[in-house]
Amino acid sequence: MAFTQQHLLGIEALHPSEITTLLDLANEYAEQNRAGGPKAQPLAGLTQVNMFFENSTRTQASFELAGKRLGATVMNMAMQASSIKKGETLIDTALTLNAMHPDLIVVRHPHSGAVNLLAEKVNCAVLNAGDGRHEHPTQALLDALTIRRAKGRLHRLSIAICGDIAHSRVARSNIHLLGKMENRLRLIGPPTLMPAGAADWGVEVFEDMTEGLKGCDVVMMLRLQKERMDGAFIPSEREYYHRYGLDAAKMAHAKPDAIVMHPGPMNRGVEIDGELADDINRSMIQEQVEMGVAVRMAAMDLLAQNRRAARGGMS
Amino acid sequence: MTLLTNALLVDPVAGTETLGWLRVDGAIIAETGQGDAPGAGVDLGGKCLAPGIVDIGVKVSEPGERHKESFRSAGEAAAAGGVTTMVIRPDTVPAIDSPEVLEFVNRRATIDSAVHVLPMSALTRGRAGREMVEIGFMQDAGAVAFSDADNVIVNTKVASRCLTYARAMGALVIGHPQDPGLSAGAAVTSGKFASLKGLPAVSAMAERMGLDRDLALVEMTGVRYHFDQLTSARSLPRITRAKANGLDVTAGVSIHHLTLNELDVGDYRTFFKVKPPLRSEDDRLAMVQAVADGVIDIISSMHTPQDEESKRLPFEEAASGAVALETLLPAAMRLYHAGTISMAQLFKAMSLNPSRILGLPGGRLAPGAPADLVAFDAHAPFILDRTKLRSKSKNTPFDGQRMQGRVLGTWVAGRPVFGDLT
């Protein structure tokens, strides 16, 4: 089954074969990016608008680079400073933007569901670059591509997701994706950072890190926001690092060839030991950033193709 | 003089539905009887005739937000929905917390509303939970109950003084049980669904915590108290026990918590955002059973108009509430058609019990009772089109849904206010 979506709002709506199609293309782009030099530009003549209602440096840069490599005209709108501050609603902003006829809109918003709402009101392709605690589909896709390249497959793996699951859209998208691809998932974290009802998601839930990591092929760490550290959700940074920070000793419970991942930016010494993060034999963190550009190129390429097909069909 | 014949008389006092007739004289019911009528009248063709609905907790949005709903539009919606008395909420802008505002409300209601309007007063000034309102003056000006609506009085000392004073005045206090700390910022009920959608959520346990505190305050002060919206199974044993212990308490539930559950929110549909949030299916079923068993005394619409602008927002930012004056009856018919609650029980919960709680003579089909009546076809099917609602705001969760139950005629104090039967 080919990739049939008009938008990329989340992983939940994707069919496993669509995920495979997207990852296959992303893998080609990854190789092409490594080779360097001039390439075909399938998005030439198209306009991509990045709307980030929440600060982001890494994701926005990754989307911008992906668009430019494919030949799109990329515009960044700093939504923090724009009309939202003047009281304009999200829908009005979307309609204003829509009137300028962009082809692709990349949106990040602090509220869950906001990107879905926006996608209903515009007639271009919308890519979710993270909405509240809901989904961050391109992050899950780049994680999946990283795992597939490192492990040679994306099924029947034991994968642990550790840390602040409750506030993480990365965790939710990964749970959807890795579950659809038939992996065994474990969520590890303190109960205050574990979402209610997580045990009903078809995953195993652990409060103890060493127990949860036993026999894992992949260990995915999540970022812990500074404002959640001091007594609100966990007693302190140092107690968290002691119990849930990933270091060589805890990692020894996973499989000998297990890989370590982190969506970045990292808090060294809070959720992950600095040395482990830099271990080129285990840490995939730099690879993840690289795959990020490739996955976003593939996603935008496929959405642009579907858009062209839909328009061709109408005329 | 109106004679209504060949009507299925829904009698919530006797708990019966019998074919018969009813004669109205002026503003009161003069006579009723079974079987054939003593003369020619308006033939209802075997359709239902019931006492009009007394709806505790309607928000009219006057003063302050007349663009959302006015006494005229709310009155028309009520008439079309078989609601003959709206007991209106004080959570307006400004709050109904002084005799002057109450006088404005009474005047506007008298001029514009097609149905009876009974106002509630805030319990504390500005519903801020600090100083009590002039309870005596508000009673003199016509306030039938005192409530800070969905604001909880956080300071227990303030709450206990308000309830003690209210008890001395014989006032009815209506409250919304909720632990304000735990429920702060929540948009939905916590659980598997809310967590997947990434929405800020609260456990239904927050309701029981609030209920436990408020029941202790009722026991301490002896005040007459009505819990306007209970929504979770865990609250029910508390209410049962409080009643058995002789506390003067009653409990209500909104029609939305009886007919919808948390999964209806689906893909961030803000018309399903209500307060308290929709609960699990287990809770919904428990609440339906509690109405059937009489643990829950009343069903209300919790009519809360919100304009498009306050709903067309990301779910977390969107306003809470749903309009329901016109959909209360057909939604309640779902419970009847599902076989879980009888017609007479429904009207006990929608008409008789609210009248009793407020000390009103209505809610019955008996000689001498006010001729506030609704005639309806319990089976007539239709698909709800929200644009056709009479409310100024169209924020109904039932848009596009198949429903059964159509109002044929509504009478307020013997006067027809809806339908063309007479």
Draw up the topology in text.
The complex is a heterodimer of chains A (315) and B (422).
Chain A: H1 16-35, E1 47-52, H2 58-69, E2 73-78, H3 90-98, E3 104-109, H4 114-121, E4 125-131, H5 137-151, E5 158-162, H6 169-180, E6 184-188, E7 204-206, H7 209-213, E8 218-221, H8 237-244, H9 248-251, E9 259-261, H10 274-278, H11 285-314
Parallel strand pairs in A: 1-2, 1-3, 3-4, 5-6, 5-8, 6-7, 8-9
Helix pairs in contact in A: 1-5, 1-11, 2-11, 3-4, 5-6, 5-11
Chain B: E1 2-11, E2 16-25, E3 28-34, E4 42-43, E5 48-51, E6 53-58, H1 71-80, E7 83-88, H2 99-112, E8 116-121, H3 135-140, E9 145-147, H4 156-168, E10 172-175, H5 180-183, E11 188-189, H6 192-197, E12 201-202, H7 205-221, E13 224-227, H8 236-244, E14 249-254, H9 255-259, H10 281-293, E15 298-300, H11 308-311, H12 328-337, H13 343-358, E16 373-383, E17 402-412, E18 415-419
Parallel strand pairs in B: 1-4, 1-5, 6-7, 7-8, 8-9, 9-10, 10-13, 11-12, 13-14, 14-15
Antiparallel strand pairs in B: 1-2, 2-3, 5-16, 16-17, 17-18
Helix pairs in contact in B: 4-7
Structure write-up:
The complex is a heterodimer of chains A (315) and B (422). Chain A is α/β, with parallel strands linked by helices and 315 residues long. Chain A has helices spanning 16-35, 58-69, 90-98, 114-121, 137-151, 169-180, 209-213, 237-244, 248-251, 274-278, 285-314, and strands spanning 47-52, 73-78, 104-109, 125-131, 158-162, 184-188, 204-206, 218-221, 259-261. In chain A, the strands form two sheets. Chain A has a five-stranded parallel beta sheet. In chain A, strands 2-1-3-4 form a four-stranded parallel beta sheet, sandwiched between helices. In chain A, helix 3 (90-98) runs parallel beside helix 4. Chain A is globular and about 55 Å long. The N and C termini of chain B lie close together (11 Å). Chain B is α/β, with parallel strands linked by helices and 422 residues long. Chain B is globular. Classes of the chains: A alpha/beta (315), B alpha/beta (422). The A-B interface holds A 12, 89-91, 109, 111-114, 116-117, 131-135, 166, 169, 172, 195-198, 200-201 and B 190-199, 201, 203, 267-268, 309, 312-317.
